[in-house]
Specification:
With about 950 residues, the chain is an alpha+beta fold. Helices cover about 50% and strands about 15% of the residues. A 5-stranded mixed sheet has the order 12-13-16-14-15, with helices on both faces. A 5-stranded antiparallel sheet has the order 20-21-27-23-24, with no helix packed on it. Strand 5 (about 80-85) and strand 6 form a beta hairpin. It is globular.
Length: about 950
């Protein structure tokens, strides 16, 4: 499709007078069809006259209601357009000259329909196991239990983000974004099974649309979309969960399409929508969105320059609303994320700069493991996987080699991209320099090549010396894990691969002296073939040294894997994976070289062979998708999460918490999935990489004194192996504080809970803690102490928990009278509790402190009988308030600052209004027989 602007002046007054009733001219202009058909221009074919709408100032295809009437003529020949004058301002209408080989709009629509259907079919096949009855997608983070707990917080969690299911509770903002909205609307199991597939389909579909709109053919756009979304970490993170990253990836191509449209039209409305899409990325996961924004922000400037040239003043006016809209929508997650993930995080706020650096850069991508890009599973598939134990260095704790403390490594995804996408991504820049290509396409290639290179070296983190300079920038020093740059790297690589394919395809299809020959393709074809042969020979050589490799793995990693109960078989599996990964990579590289050869010699073959070869090439990439899916799309039987006797016991005390004496075996799964799924609160936490400073100190000083820790944290039930009860029974002091409630066994494989019998005594037990451990207790005495003294007294043998509270000094205690009670007197009933809200009925026999075994936070507010009262931090981490004797109603509400949340709602409402306006104008123009280009 090419655009020509040809015009000659008319007096615009006549058109201006009737511009508000322009529809009456439709019959008149259609009656002129014969004139336009016979107009003598270089071309053949019939012309068609249409009223397109109203032209904008300086052209560009925009339309404004009330502007002078624009007459649009479509023809196979070049047709003159009118240059109208209105109030002394030149108005230019842009017309399209359709070449005979142009694709009809209906064919384009059909193409997009088939593409969307293809991605949906791919998702159904890749995630086919979840279609089987009783199966659910397994993920480590954002798992089904976590999603159920999050769903129970909606919709209140959007403005009162508080999670009290782990430890003593913590701020947990749930942003009003597309992901959480879908979670609220759909059952948790359905959402768990399909949210990753949904994000991948929508993201890859819009990236295909973006690449096609940039002028690339369907084969190139398909290759780019598959490489960017269905390979490497952007796909294999399915196993890890991380649905926030998938949400970011969904919005990226939507932003790219919108910002291109906005720059092309010089449109305020489209600019606002592009800003909304960029802001929506921050709503999903702010740190990953920030890394993407480092590239997507400059891309907006590129899009403007590509479409409008050096009109920088106009660019500032155009990009300003985009930035404003982005800030309106992203301010809430940025501020809330800073408060919960930076401001009070022990490791981030540590005064030890080296410790902070090691915490932030722990998950850096080792440069030596880039072989994983073309050899899938060479370093193993993932940590704790006996069929492919990860033996690389990503996630390794600093000093692990010397002290053996922390993580030896930890990785749940794979970075395999395949030789085919990688070949064409590297070809893009080479061909853009070597051959004459469109200037705009060259500009795009250089931009995304730079993004790809910078993202890769920044993903190296601590292994890249210059990362320390990048680390000094604002915000960056608080974003953990440089390997998150790999998501941006993969997206840029996918776009570059599409351009590389297109450049090579165009050169091979060209005719004349500029056409590609085998000799001309040799600088491209030969290195790919050499790499393929090299990997094959390497794989064959490794096969011959298989036994040596097995012994190497046993000597290097054997002591670590022995703790997991693995035997010789895991080393055999790892050696075989390494061999086949090299062979796989070599075959794929040779197939890429074969395609390059076929396309360079396509004039010797059938004309359809090049298209068939392209289809085979994309089929190989799809094969790699299924190859990765075997390891990273796994399912489990959620039927094992059905209610059992243990769960029923734990749920019988909704105001109390549960403690575990071990994390081994199924206990970790129960803590991560079962407990949150069934709403069982635990004083343990499955994982908290960014531990708040106060929690870290409290657990270090008090957590080791288990009984005191349980007592202060309102623990009623303790779960563990049967040996725990044997130890308690032999300890007179503990024996009177605990009762055996239930002995049971857990069936291996199914996870079913079976009661103990005489033939099979229970291997696991539920023990009840009978000592004082109320979650809401009336305490008769208080004392003001400093934090250090409080931590010391809390674990002292003579300290009586729930008989006296230690109120932190430095607070305004003027409203708190002296208390001298000796016995607890009264009753507390919990009437209502939901995320960020608690309502209690208190019957106090004497003035007391109402102590709550929940974490203190300055954003909690309390009311006593409808009147605001102060909350105090006590027992170092808990909270409480003073209540006089008598009957009272106490209401506690978590109310963090809401300004940014309402600002986000205003931004989202504005985006909805703008989107509705553009949709209405488009419908109006279509209904009137006009163009779809509306502003």
């Amino acid at each position: 499709m090419e655009e020509k602007i040809v015009g000659f002046p008319f007096n615009g007054n006549f058109f201006t007078v009737f511009s508000t009733q322009w529809k009456i001219f439709v019959p008149f202009f259609h009656s002129m069809e014969t004139f336009w058909r016979d107009f003598p221009f270089n071309g053949k074919g019939s012309a068609r006259t249409e009223v397109r709408g109203c032209c904008n100032r300086k052209g560009g295809g925009r339309f404004r209601r009330g502007a002078p009437l624009c007459l649009a003529i479509q023809s196979h020949c070049l047709i003159p357009s009118a240059v109208l004058w209105w109030y002394g301002m030149k108005e230019v209408c842009c017309f399209t000259h359709h070449r005979s080989e142009d694709v009809e709009p209906m064919k384009i629509k059909r193409e997009y329909t088939w593409v969307w259907a293809g991605f949906i079919l791919l998702a159904l096949l890749v995630f086919r196991e979840v279609l089987l009855p009783g199966n659910a997608l397994f993920t480590t983070d954002d798992n089904l239990g976590d999603l159920m707990a999050r769903k129970q917080q909606l919709p209140w969690g959007w403005w009162r983000g508080w999670n009290d299911s782990a430890l003593l509770g913590f701020a947990s903002p749930l942003f009003l974004n597309g992901t959480n909205l879908l979670l609220w609307l759909f059952p948790a199991t359905t959402f768990n099974n399909w949210i990753n597939a949904f994000d991948l389909v929508v993201g890859s579909g819009f990236l295909f649309l973006f690449l096609r709109r940039r002028g690339l053919n369907g084969w190139a756009a398909g290759l780019g979309s598959l490489a960017a979304y269905w390979l490497a970490s952007n796909f294999t993170l399915t196993y890890a969960g991380h649905i926030g990253k998938f949400g970011v990836l969904l919005w990226v191509p939507i932003y790219l399409c919108l910002v291109d449209e906005a720059a092309k039209r010089r449109s305020l409305a489209w600019s606002l929508l592009a800003g909304a899409a960029l802001g929506a990325m921050f709503l999903e996961q702010a740190d990953v969105a920030f890394f993407f924004a480092l590239a997507l922000g400059p891309y907006a400037l590129l899009a403007w320059f590509r479409n409008q040239g050096r009109d920088w003043l106009g660019g500032v006016k155009w990009i300003a609303p985009l930035l404003v809209m982005t800030l309106m929508i992203s301010a809430h997650p940025l501020l809330s994320g800073y408060q919960t993930a930076v401001e009070d995080v022990a490791a981030v706020q540590s005064e030890d700069t080296q410790a902070q650096w090691e915490f932030i850069t722990q998950w850096s991508w080792p440069p030596g493991e880039t072989l994983d890009f073309i050899a899938p599973g060479y370093f193993g598939w993932r940590s704790n996987d006996p069929t492919g134990f990860y033996v690389g260095k990503m996630g390794r704790s600093a000093g692990w080699e010397e002290a053996g403390q922390g993580f030896a490594n930890f990785k749940l995804e794979n970075q395999y991209l395949g030789a085919i996408p990688l070949t064409f991504a590297l070809l893009a820049a080479f061909l853009a320099v070597r051959f004459r290509v469109d200037a705009k396409a060259r500009l795009d290639v250089w931009f995304w090549t730079i993004v790809m290179a910078l993202a890769l070296v920044l993903s190296f983190g601590k292994y890249f010396p210059l990362y320390r300079l990048f680390y000094q920038l604002p915000i960056v020093s608080s974003i953990r894990n440089p390997n998150k740059f790999l998501q941006l790297f993969q997206l840029a690589l996918g776009i570059c691969a599409a351009y590389g394919f297109q450049f090579y395809w165009d050169k091979a299809k060209a005719t004349g002296q500029r056409s590609l020959t085998v000799a001309g393709a040799l600088p491209v074809l030969a290195p790919v073939a050499v790499v393929g042969l090299g990997l094959l020979l390497w794989g064959i050589g490794t096969l011959s040294a298989r036994e040596t490799l097995i012994h190497y793995f046993l000597d290097t990693w054997g002591p670590l894997t022995a703790q997991m109960g693995w035997n010789h078989e895991w080393a055999v599996a790892l050696a075989d994976n390494r061999i086949w990964s090299l062979l796989h990579g070599g075959i794929m590289a040779l197939m890429a070289a074969l395609f390059l050869y076929v396309l360079a010699t396509q004039d010797r073959w059938s004309p359809r062979l090049s298209h068939s070869a392209a289809a085979v090439l994309l089929g190989l990439v799809v094969f790699d998708v299924f190859f990765l899916a075997r390891h990273y799309v796994t399912t489990f039987q959620p039927g094992s999460m059905r209610d059992n006797e243990v769960i029923r016991i734990l749920q019988s005390a909704p105001d109390q918490r549960v403690a575990l004496t071990t994390r081994a075996g199924f206990y970790n799964e129960w803590l991560s999935i079962q407990f949150p799924y069934h709403g069982v609160a635990s004083i343990e936490v499955a994982q908290m990489p960014r531990m708040p400073q106060r929690y870290q100190t409290y657990l270090q000083r008090v957590g080791g004194h288990s009984v005191r820790h349980w007592q202060l944290g309102a623990v009623q039930y303790v779960l563990g192996p049967a040996q725990v009860w044997a130890e308690i029974s032999n300890h007179p002091e503990f024996r009177r504080r605990f009762n055996l409630v239930y002995a049971y066994n857990v069936e291996r494989g199914t996870g079913r809970v079976l009661p103990a019998t005489e033939d099979r005594p229970g291997e696991h037990v539920v023990i009840e803690h009978t000592g004082p451990r109320q979650r809401y207790a009336l305490v008769p005495r208080w004392r003001e102490v400093g934090d250090e003294e409080a931590l010391t007294r809390l674990v002292a043998a003579d300290f009586e928990p729930l008989r006296e509270v230690l109120i932190a000094s430095g607070q305004d205690l003027s409203a708190l009278p002296e208390l001298s009670g000796t016995e607890n007197g009264g009753r507390v009933d919990r009437r209502e509790r939901r995320p960020g809200y608690v309502r209690l009925r208190v019957a106090a026999e004497q003035p007391s402190i109402l102590r709550m075994a929940d974490k203190f936070d300055p954003h909690w507010q309390a009311e006593l009988n409808g009147n605001p009262v102060p909350l105090w931090r006590m027992d170092y981490i808990a909270k409480g308030l003073y209540v006089p004797s008598g009957m009272h109603e106490v209401v506690l509400t978590y109310r963090p600052p809401q300004f940014t949340f309402w600002l986000q709602l205003v931004g989202m409402l504005l985006a909805a209004v703008v989107g509705g306006y553009l949709a209405f104008k488009r419908f109006q123009c279509r209904h009137a027989g006009g163009d779809q280009h509306v502003d």
